[in-house]
Amino acid sequence: MNSRRCAACKHLRRRCPSDCIFAPYFPSNNPLRFAYVHKIYGASNVAKILDDVPVKCRAQAAETLWYEAYCRIRDPVHGCAGMVSVLHQQLNIAEWQLATVKAAIKNESSNVEPLLDPRPLPPHYI
Amino acid sequence: MNSRRCAACKHLRRRCPSDCIFAPYFPSNNPLRFAYVHKIYGASNVAKILDDVPVKCRAQAAETLWYEAYCRIRDPVHGCAGMVSVLHQQLNIAEWQLATVKAAIKNESSNVEPLLDPRPLPPHYI
Description:
2 copies of one chain form a homodimer.
Chain A: H1 7-11, H2 31-40, H3 43-52, H4 58-74, H5 79-116
Helix pairs in contact in A: 2-4, 3-4
């Protein structure tokens, strides 16, 4: 029945077979989700990628394909790899800040060490 | 001439036209680079994506397409989006550590403030 076709089969204007590889991951109520992956990868490549992973992993694979297609449509030059680059930069900055603060603490604590870690009194005080 | 065909035209077993969209970004000495994007996106989708961006951005677009295809072949379930997820987690951890260390410093400095910032002596010491 037409009303039971998944978003992919609707988009491709074909019957939706009972074992449709797309149906569980591209429901008819979200046509954009399939339109995105279709535009970037093409239906046959999406089907091949889904078919090559275990059934239990296909929902995750469809989700990440959709995410990458969405990123590529939003930023055709950098795509999802642009996000990786931005996050690498942010991580480098955060790790540098953390290392700087830790070094400052180490330096500070070595300066105030006598106050925090009492040493034995020198002999003439005993 | 055959020897001047780019990696894409060699892979697709076709003549390499003088205005080949692939040639500047998929040189013949790196056949795997095109094989990866061909496997994941298909040649026509790669050509469409490259054609849709300004010429000066195409090298970057080809590089990110290659990177995403490489990630998808290495990890067919998560692809490049998996890297985004891992980097998000690492960034969250680094930012949490930074916030924790900064809070500890603030707390510590408010505790040791009297030692570092001498207050006026109470009246009976004057």
